[in-house]
Automatic annotation (TrEMBL):
It comes from the Bacteria. Keywords: Membrane, Transmembrane, Transmembrane helix. The chain crosses the membrane at residues 73-92. This is FecR domain-containing protein. Gene3D superfamilies: 2.60.120.1440. It holds the Pfam family FecR. It comes from Chitinophaga filiformis (Myxococcus filiformis). Residues 102-195 form the FecR protein domain.
Length: 309
């Protein structure tokens, strides 16, 4: 009975026939959704819900030509959520695979062994998501950071790594993916075997041993060149800057040494930076070496390092 009553009130509200008390109650109820966290849905789930909403409201639109106000549209969405919430919950929480999130701290390198026999090494300040059940799907997501993969081959279940706009697929190989959120340049470097790298909305590139793909986030372009093995030195405790922008350098120094680099000088921001630093160095000492190589000076306040001429 209560469900039928609610449906009747919502229908009257949509048609503009509800009383002031009912209308105010529904308005307040809908506004409360602004403070509720909404679970993210995949593109497929969003499309399925969009189609079902349309199938529910289209007959009403054909029967009655009603000029909906903003609140009416909001209420229509709210009604659908009320009636289909159980289905949506099932889709999100039952159909989607369960994942475990693993992170490495600032300055930490972490090696983990997966259930399928593959081995992963995380660079400093990295976050990855791994499926709890790898017997059905081997799809990992690099949320932030850099990871070296030594993959155990299994032709029946390809090993897939999602890193923002790049999707790397392998059967059995060793490769490195650098995908720090705050760094413009991403890369996939193959040290053994072969991988396919698919760009979002674009074609795929096949990389073999000693090849690397570099992706420019800003320009959305990719190039394939011979691998620069010095960039893999992080596994041996070396942070490498190779023609890095100031902003990219700031991210890597923070991830490796916990320092926040800043400057008020435009010329310093426009400079490109190239150097190698041992990650075992004292953080301030590392900043001093970086500054000296580029003829700069530093001022240290806590964890903040200001660069100047």
């Amino acid at each position: 009975m209560e469900t039928d009553k609610l449906k009747r009130i919502f229908r009257q509200y949509l048609l503009g026939q509800a009383g002031k008390r009912e209308s105010d109650t529904i308005d307040s109820w809908y506004q409360s959704f602004d403070n509720e966290p909404v679970a993210p849905l995949s593109r497929e789930q969003e499309e399925a819900i969009r189609r079902e909403i349309w199938q529910n409201i289209q007959p009403e639109l054909e029967r009655k030509k009603v000029y909906y106000l903003k609140r009416s549209l909001a209420a229509a969405a709210a009604i659908f959520l009320l009636l289909a919430g159980g289905l949506t919950y099932y889709m999100v929480n039952k159909s989607a695979p369960a994942y475990t999130e693993i992170a490495s701290a600032i300055g930490e390198r972490k090696t983990i062994q997966l259930a399928d026999g593959s081995q992963l090494t995380l660079n400093a300040g990295s976050v990855i998501r791994i499926p709890k059940d790898m017997s059905k799907e081997r799809r990992l997501d690099i949320v932030d950071g850099e990871v070296f993969f030594d993959v155990k081959g299994n032709p029946a279940i390809p090993f897939i790594v999602q890193s923002g706009p790049l999707t790397t697929t392998v059967l059995g190989t060793a490769f490195n993916v650098s995908a720090y959120k705050g760094v413009n340049r991403m890369s996939v470097s193959v040290t053994d075997g072969k991988v396919s790298v698919q760009k979002a909305g674009g074609s795929a590139d096949v990389l073999v041993k000693d090849q690397a793909l570099t992706y420019d986030r800003a320009k959305k372009t990719a190039t394939v060149d011979a691998i620069d093995k010095s960039l893999l030195g992080w596994r041996q405790g070396t942070m490498v800057l190779n023609d890095a922008s100031f902003d990219d350098m700031v991210v890597l120094m923070q991830k490796n040494f916990g320092l926040s680099l800043t400057t008020s000088e435009v010329k310093i921001r426009e400079t490109r930076y190239t150097t190698e630093l041992s990650t075992t160095m004292d953080p301030v000492k590392a900043a001093e070496v970086l500054a000296a190589i580029h003829n700069l000076k530093i001022e240290v306040t806590g964890h903040v390092v200001t660069l100047h001429k």
